[in-house]
Amino acid sequence: MIDHIGIGAGDFDASRRFYEAALAPLGMSVMMEVTPEESGGYHGVGLGSEGKPFFWVGNGGQRGAGMHVAFTAATRAQVDAFYAAAMAAGARDNGAPGLRPDYHPNYYAAFVFDPDGINVEAVCHAPE
Predict the structure, then answer these.
(1) pTM above 0.85, yes or no
(2) Cβ 105 vs Cβ 48: under 8 Å
(3) DSSP per-residue codes, 22-58
(4) Are strands 92-93 and 108-113 parallel, antiparallel or unpaired?
(5) CA-CA distance, 128 to 121, in Å (whole number)?
(6) How many angstroms separate the CA atoms of 25 and 97, rounded?
(7) Of 19, 30, 78, 110, which one has the fewest beta carbons inside 10 Å?
(8) Distance between CA atoms of residues 25 and 20, nearest Å
(9) CA–CA separation, 123 vs 87, rounded Å?
(10) 69 — phi, psi (to 5°)?
(11) pLDDT at position 39 over 90
(12) pLDDT of residue 83
């Protein structure tokens, strides 16, 4: 089981704004921040829920093409809201909200590219 994951951002401030906006509809927000003064150079924010940061965005990253991160959505409406928020925050479309029956009959997802080209998905597995 994975406890947390971190990605490096080419433009930390842009990626921070993007993820804060895009993940808010999924109930995620910044739970913790590590400043360069505290760490000797690393600047990162841990997003999560219920007091637990499990997705970290940090400075100094390379472009993330080829990477894929999927976040669980409790409802299809949350998938739709994720997509709308991500697009409003500057994402590039990689698949509008909808069923992906090739994966399984209830696989409802949306895909976007973040500022560094990472393929970010929100998915709901529940029927309707």
Answers:
(1) yes
(2) no
(3) HHGGGT-EEEEEE-HHHHTS--EEEEEETTEEEEEEE
(4) antiparallel
(5) 18
(6) 14
(7) 30
(8) 10
(9) 16
(10) -130, 130
(11) no
(12) 98
**In terms of pLDDT, which residue wins out, 28 or 68?**
28
Domains of the chain (ranges; CATH) run 5-124 (3.10.180.10)
CA gap 39, 71 in Å, rounded: 28
User: What b-and-e string marks burial along 57-70, b requiring 16 or more CB atoms within 10 Å of the CB?
Assistant: bbbebeebeeeeee
Question: Is residue 105's pLDDT more than 80?
Answer: yes
pLDDT of residue 79 exceeding 80? yes
Nearest C-alpha neighbor of 118 from the set 13, 2, 18: 18
Instruction: Kindly tell me the sign of the dihedral angle through the C-alpha atoms of 11, 12, 13, 14.
Output: positive
- CB proximity list for 20: less than 8 A, separation 6 or greater: 29, 30, 47
Letter for the amino acid at 105? P
